[in-house]
């Protein structure tokens, strides 16, 4: 299938695709369309940014017939609120000429009462995070027995977030006879287990190894001693506004995100998002980044899969990710739609092992760049970087042992005695009477003892 015309899709979908300007399907879209349309269970493994969302939406929408029933027939699960919003938007732009009701549900500032009211109006496709979906299912307003197709997007990060229990709870509310569709950027042990437990003879399609770096993304790395020097290096790089016109900066933790934002806060064109930020704040931050009001967006890996923004010129990994696969997800935010992208990695001496793991996964050595002489090397350390002092035990001071506590004390005289061997009854008699004892002689021996 070289073009969307080969898909033989209905004219309403075809017109929407033409309006979007899509000409050729991506490899994952080619591999998944006919298989999903056939009704069998499907597992698709492809890198971030390869069109996975449209890969499952096209066959799902092609097979979805008009209905005025209230309860949904398609359930799509996603790990983050941002990804839920993105999927709902994708459904809407693909269905301007179709009568399809779609609803996104997720936690946070979004009111569950409003979501319950929306459910009463009827829905064909429901998209949501596992916890909110399960809460609505328990309320009995959302009944999942009418679900015909279950799609789990970014299933690997879904399991990394610890949603396995919630997924199992949701599965119990679903009909046994249904089509299961899983999409992931990586095939992990947890994904394998989920596939084995809940899918029936699924067809697996792996488009590319997740560790393969995208050809249109240039990569480089800097060896940096600590957090504050990284911040100084980042400030220096961002001074070139033409080269760094739309920059996504990934950090390891929420604490690092807030700390870095405060250090760079003199720049009004910087936004920050992470899981502790209110949904309104996160939405506004992304909107400002999309429309160009913010040139730099600081984010954590939690939402790495939920950001689908075009024309990101550079992705900077301020911290080296603990999981090598996450590096691939990060840099997949740039270099989209055959555009050139740039990825920069900062790593400390302690993060060298993590960088080596990334290079091993990619089978690619990231070129090292020298830090410019204008960058100030800071000797200040963050609380996380400061090593806690280890108390040394002074073995020459006996008091350090004898006065350490109740666990250290001299043995009593009673306990210091060597344990006596426990002797059998027969052996005791032999030693006492100095002669062989036959079976049945116990009474005779007792008599002799009384006579004495």
Uncertain regions spanning at least 5 consecutive residues: 390-419
| Overall geometry | globular
Specify the CATH architecture of the largest domain. 3-Layer(aba) Sandwich
Read across the widest sheet, the strand sequence of neighbours is 3-4-2-5-6-1-7
Give the count of helical stretches.
18
* CATH top level assignment of the largest domain: Alpha Beta
Question: What is the CATH topology assignment of the largest domain?
Answer: Rossmann fold
Estimated radius of gyration: 33 Å
The tally of beta strands, per DSSP, is 13
Content of β-strand: 5-15%
N/C terminus separation: 110 Å
Summarize the biggest pleated sheet. 7 strands, parallel
| Mean of pLDDT | 82
Number of domains: 2
CATH superfamily of the largest domain: P-loop containing nucleotide triphosphate hydrolases
Summarize this, please?
The chain is α/β, with parallel strands linked by helices. It has 18 helices and 13 strands. Helix 2 runs parallel beside helix 3, helix 3 crosses helix 4 and helix 6 runs parallel beside helix 8.
Give an overview of the whole structure.
With 452 residues, the protein is α/β, with parallel strands linked by helices. The protein has two domains: 4-206, Rossmann fold (3-Layer(aba) Sandwich), CATH 3.40.50.300; 217-362, P-loop containing nucleotide triphosphate hydrolases (Rossmann fold, 3-Layer(aba) Sandwich). Helix content is 38%, strand content 14%. It contains 18 helices and 13 strands. The strands form two sheets. The protein has a seven-stranded parallel sheet, with helices on both faces. A six-stranded parallel sheet has the order 8-13-12-9-11-10. β12, α13 and β13 (341-347) form a beta-alpha-beta unit. The longest helix is centred in the first third of the chain and has 14 residues, at 81-94. The radius of gyration is 33 Å and the shape is globular. The relative contact order is 0.11.
């Amino acid at each position: 299938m070289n073009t969307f015309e080969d898909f033989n899709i209905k004219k309403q979908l075809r017109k929407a695709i033409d309006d979007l300007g899509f000409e050729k399907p991506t490899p994952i879209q080619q591999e998944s369309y006919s298989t999903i349309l056939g009704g069998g269970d499907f597992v698709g493994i492809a890198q971030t940014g390869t069109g996975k969302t449209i890969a499952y939406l096209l066959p799902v929408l092609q097979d979805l017939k008009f209905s005025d029933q209230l309860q949904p027939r398609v359930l799509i699960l996603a790990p983050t609120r941002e990804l839920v919003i993105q999927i709902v938007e994708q459904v809407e732009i693909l269905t301007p000429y179709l009568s399809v009701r779609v609803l996104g549900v997720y936690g946070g500032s979004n009111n569950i009462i409003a979501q319950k009211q929306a459910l009463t109006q009827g829905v064909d496709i429901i998209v949501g995070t596992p916890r909110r979906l399960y809460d609505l299912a328990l309320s009995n307003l959302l009944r999942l027995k009418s679900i015909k197709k279950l799609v789990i997007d970014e299933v690997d990060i879904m399991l990394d977030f610890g949603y396995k229990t919630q997924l199992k709870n949701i599965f119990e509310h679903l009909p046994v006879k249904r089509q299961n569709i899983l999409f992931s950027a990586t095939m992990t042990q947890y994904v394998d287990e989920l596939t084995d437990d809940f899918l029936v003879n699924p067809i697996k399609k792996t488009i590319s190894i997740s560790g393969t770096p995208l050809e249109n993304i240039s990569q480089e790395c800097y060896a940096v001693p600590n957090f504050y020097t990284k911040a100084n290096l980042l400030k220096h790089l961002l001074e070139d506004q033409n080269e760094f016109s739309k920059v996504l900066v990934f950090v390891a933790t929420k604490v690092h995100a807030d700390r870095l934002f405060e250090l760079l806060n003199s720049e009004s064109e910087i936004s920050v998002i992470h899981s502790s930020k209110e949904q309104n704040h996160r939405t506004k931050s992304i909107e400002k980044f999309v429309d160009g009001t913010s040139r730099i967006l600081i984010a954590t890996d939690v939402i790495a899969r939920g950001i689908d923004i075009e024309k990101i010129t550079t992705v900077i990994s301020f911290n080296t990710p603990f999981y090598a696969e996450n590096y691939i997800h990060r840099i997949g935010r740039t270099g989209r739609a055959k555009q050139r992208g740039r990825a920069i990695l900062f790593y400390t001496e302690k993060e060298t092992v993590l960088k080596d793991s990334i290079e091993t996964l990619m089978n690619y050595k990231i070129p090292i760049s020298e830090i410019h002489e204008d960058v100030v090397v800071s000797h200040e350390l963050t609380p996380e970087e400061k090593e806690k002092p280890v108390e040394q035990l002074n073995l020459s001071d006996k008091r350090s042992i004898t006065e350490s506590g109740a666990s250290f004390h001299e043995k009593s005289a009673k306990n210091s005695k060597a344990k006596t061997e426990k002797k059998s009854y027969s052996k005791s008699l032999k030693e006492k009477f100095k002669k062989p004892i036959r079976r049945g002689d116990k009474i005779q021996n007792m008599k002799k003892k009384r006579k004495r």
